[in-house]
Specification:
The protein has 269 residues and is α/β, with parallel strands linked by helices. It is built from 9 helices and 11 strands. Strand 1, helix 1 and strand 2 form a beta-alpha-beta unit. One of its GO terms (cellular component) is cytosol.
């Protein structure tokens, strides 16, 4: 009896003990899309929604073994990277990813609370070795500044210049996220071989831990389901806007996206 394969995506990222970002957030987004999520754990962290207390990075051999073992069994429709940590891990990812992989590269460099999650030499390797393999790179504005050296990025023209620089490094496409901007709306700009697409959503008056991870995971889920990037982008933007608008908020003042916001609305209705 033939079995219909389930769409599958894999996240290569760190474990976030608060479950608002990292591996845990990625898996929740994949599940919300009906995509079977696989994991390659690059690091463990001790953190909550407000701060990172510490992080411990896996060996390159561990990361490579996780990737190659998954590839023995699964046909993986999209790969998404988050926290990679150091050059050894990045080398393992570069060497182990299958040829032609659809790679959504979310360049996690510094946490929202200011904890460094990627060493300086690892950033150089990410730029030189991993960005050229990417289907799309999804930096926020501070990450785009660190990758391109363009600082500060303040205007739409600055964002477009940074996106062009990142594409010139070898990526097929770039989406610079506007969540760290100062306008009343958060505008994300996609730049690919066909040109530019800009999408805006309201800016909400609270910080949401893990929104960047969840957005990149939504892109990965869309691609695993067979969408092209131009189709995936607006749906992922709609998804993350809803997840932030209906964010799960805690007594501490912290908040995380709710990837199941649409399901909860159906239940309420």
């Amino acid at each position: 009896m033939a079995i219909d394969p389930i769409p599958t995506a894999c996240t290569i990222a760190g474990s976030d003990s608060s479950a608002g970002a990292g591996i845990q957030a990625d898996l929740k987004v994949f599940s919300a899309y009906g995509v079977y999520g696989l994991t390659v754990i690059t690091a463990t962290t001790a953190q909550n929604t407000r701060r990172v207390a510490g992080s411990w990075i896996q060996s390159g051999d561990s990361v490579a073994a996780q990737i190659t073992t998954l590839c023995e069994e699964f046909t993986i429709g999209a790969w998404k990277t988050g926290m990679l940590g150091n050059p050894e891990v990045i080398d393992a990812v570069i060497d182990s990813l299958p040829d032609g992989a659809s790679l959504i590269l979310d360049p996690v460099i510094v946490s929202t609370s200011g904890h460094r999650l990627l060493s300086a030499d690892a950033l150089t390797l990410l730029i030189d070795g991993l960005i050229p393999l990417a289907t799309v790179v999804t930096p926020n504005i501070p990450e785009a500044e660190m990758i391109t050296g363009i600082t500060p990025i303040l205007t739409p023209e600055d964002v477009r210049e940074a996106a062009a620089v990142i594409r010139s490094l070898g990526a097929d496409a770039v989406i610079i996220k506007g969540g760290h901007g100062t306008d009343t709306e958060a505008t994300d700009i996609l730049l690919d071989s066909e040109g530019e697409v800009a999408l805006s959503s309201p800016r909400y008056p609270y910080e949401v831990h893990g929104s960047g991870c969840s957005f990149a995971s939504a892109i990965a889920a869309e691609i695993a389901l067979g969408a092209d990037l131009r189709s995936a982008f607006p749906d992922a933007k709609r998804f993350i806007d809803g997840a932030i608008r209906h964010a799960i908020r805690f007594d501490s003042g912290g908040a995380v996206p709710d990837p199941f916001w649409e399901m909860r609305r159906i239940e309420i209705d």
